[in-house]
Amino acid sequence: PYSLYLKLISFLTHANLEVAYRINFYIGPILLFASLAYFLHKLEVSKKIRLLFFITLTLYSGSGAYHGFYWVVPSFYQLALFFVMLTFVIDQKPIKIKNVLPVSLVFIFIHPTSIFVSSIFIIYPFVLSFFKKKLSIVNLKNTAVICAALIISYIIYFLLGLRFPHAESPESFQTNIQLVIDFLSGKLRPDSFPVIWDEYFSILFLNPITIAAYFAMFFFVYRIKQYKILSIYVSTLLLVLVSSFLPYGWRTLGFLW
């Protein structure tokens, strides 16, 4: 999709692909702004807190291990689509598959790691139920709709992967399915964890003061009943820990921001 997107920009602007790639750096932030605004509108009622969230999220610059919002490449759009998918997940009203499917299709195809990142959407309602101490029927139904859209997206990805195989390419279906098989069979080691520790946990667990601050903030968010934020965080944290067994698993740290 990213290549087609650049070719579309090239076609509409009558420019070569290099210029289209540069134009992409101006269009991307606008699309990201729209996805963040949509997500935060569903997440928080207070406009002041919403503004604070927006400023905090857009300061995300990543590191040498994973991209931030300064580099408009497939992972940039993956994060933007991630916010849109999260909006469907946290919605308290019933959602329709016709609205979710187009987003899930692009989300799966834009970056190969989206297959693993999708697990956040499935984990979230159960983590939310744990914190709220009750099971939301609407959340479960929405999760079922999202799962159906993702399964359809996976099937299309699978069929195209068989039709146009790219052996040993990180974008190929064969590579992704082999990673799943190896993980479930216990063949993978937590080789990515040292990078994940250096990039994230070593900062939180720097000394007793930072450790206390981390758990205090965790408790504070729980006390003020920000269950959605807490559930998104815990779901993503679980994904990051599992990703320590995957090659380049530290790239999931971007979603923890």
How would you describe what is shown here?
- The protein is mainly alpha-helical.
- The chain is 73% helix and 0% strand.
- It contains 13 helices and no strands.
- Helix 2 (17-43) runs parallel beside helix 4 (74-90) and helix 4 (74-90) runs antiparallel to helix 8 (137-163).
- The longest helix has 27 residues, at 17-43.
- It is globular.
- It starts with a helix and ends with a helix.
- The model has no long low-confidence stretch (mean pLDDT 84).
Report the uncertain regions: none
Number of helices: 13
Q: Which word captures the global form?
A: globular
Strand content: under 5%
Number of E-state strands: 0
Please estimate the helix content: over 70%
**Rg for CA atoms:** 19 Å
Secondary structure layout plus pairing:
Layout lengths: L1 H12 L3 H27 L3 H12 L15 H17 L6 H14 L3 H4 L1 H14 L4 H27 L9 H12 L8 H12 L3 H16 L3 H17 L9 H4 L1
Helix pairs in contact: 1-2, 2-4, 4-5, 4-8, 5-8, 7-12
